[in-house]
Amino acid sequence: MLDAFANIFRIPELRKRVIYSLSMLAVYRVGCHIPTPGINSQALAHFFAQAKGTLLGMFDMFSGGALEKLTVFALGIMPYISASIIFQLLTVVIPSIEKLSKEGEAGRKKITQYTRYGTIVLSVIQALGISIGLESMRGAAGELVVPSPGWGFRILTVITLTAGTAFIMWMGEQMSEKGVGNGISLIIFAGIVARIPVAILNSFRLMKTGELQFFVILLVVALMLAVVAGIVFVERGQRRLPIHYAKRVAGSRTYGAQTSHLPLKVNMAGVIPPIFASSIIMFPATVANFINIDWVRNAAQMMSPGNWLYELFYVAFIVFFCYFYTAVTFNPADVAENIKKHGGYIPGIRPGKETSEFLDKVLTKLTFSGAIYISIVCVLPSILIGKFNLPFYFGGTALLIAVGVGMDTVAQIESHLITRNYEGFMKGVRIKGRR
Questions:
Q1: Closest CA to 380 of 274, 293, 259
Q2: Which domains does the chain have, with CATH numbers?
Q3: CA angle 385, 390, 395 (to 5 degrees)
Q4: pTM for this one?
């Protein structure tokens, strides 16, 4: 494996791509430490210490701690992800956008342009909401988070945070084009893994004080390795449906009978269900931070991580969004029609309607398995934190993203190595991404 890493720097093009991506990630991490003007950082840190288990805590995780410090990259890449998801859902609802998505490269470029506009709009709205919310926050001693509130601070914050998100979006697109891996995914990955050193230091600190036993650390490490191995196994898992193509004649050319397959992933929805589920279920706890009413705070406490009611609703939302997002992104009727148009059929299944029904049945079973798998991975952190008093958030959406992005990036690097007749990362084994 060390030889494979050394081979990366022996290929000029691959070396240039890897260095470019690493340089962009370094710029991103520097930006995560440049504070927005007009903020009392100590008072803000105290507020976020109380905001764990809320939407603010989740967004801070995706931004790599930039939101907690309210840096220029505080919004992170979440507005871009939200805009992308919105336009993906609108593709099913609005015929004109659906038509654009089927127009090839030109249509995709147009949708990408609309997504950029949507990102800016969402960034302005979120930045304005954050600036207004910050003005009402107070630290441990009752000091204001924003010493000089007003429209001057709000406008400055909106401009700073929106520009930061636009810059991150540009960096992600440049990394995808000139670097290695998916730029947007790598930025999220960098934000997540940036917290690992702090988590390790906190674990050692608790172990020295006796609050965390050495045996518990070993157990957690072993469990983490097992969960990562399980995620890799399931993310690569596919149900391959055989498709036979009959002999056909196209003009003066004759094509013989062919056999192919239709790969259906176990986890078709990816990380979208836990993101949506977390956003919805954390909303009451987020609202409670700004409303000093007893029954609101009690309701938020019941819906906090570790509570059985929270876990029940979390799993229910994950299962719902797994089926919903899979239904939006994969249409069995369209797939069956395309197979029929190209003269293909699934053995034992009639082309057309019966093929569509068969695909729908297989997809329903796969989605259920994927939903159970995602639920287990996402509920595991709450159990660990509650039982073992862990000082870091392990598992869930963050772990799914980190492992998935790592698999895709390594697979892309290995494809460059093998194309140029170099050995891959493991002899005799071809590493594949999720796609």
A1: 274
A2: 1-188 (1.10.3370.10), 220-394 (1.10.3370.10)
A3: 60
A4: 0.76
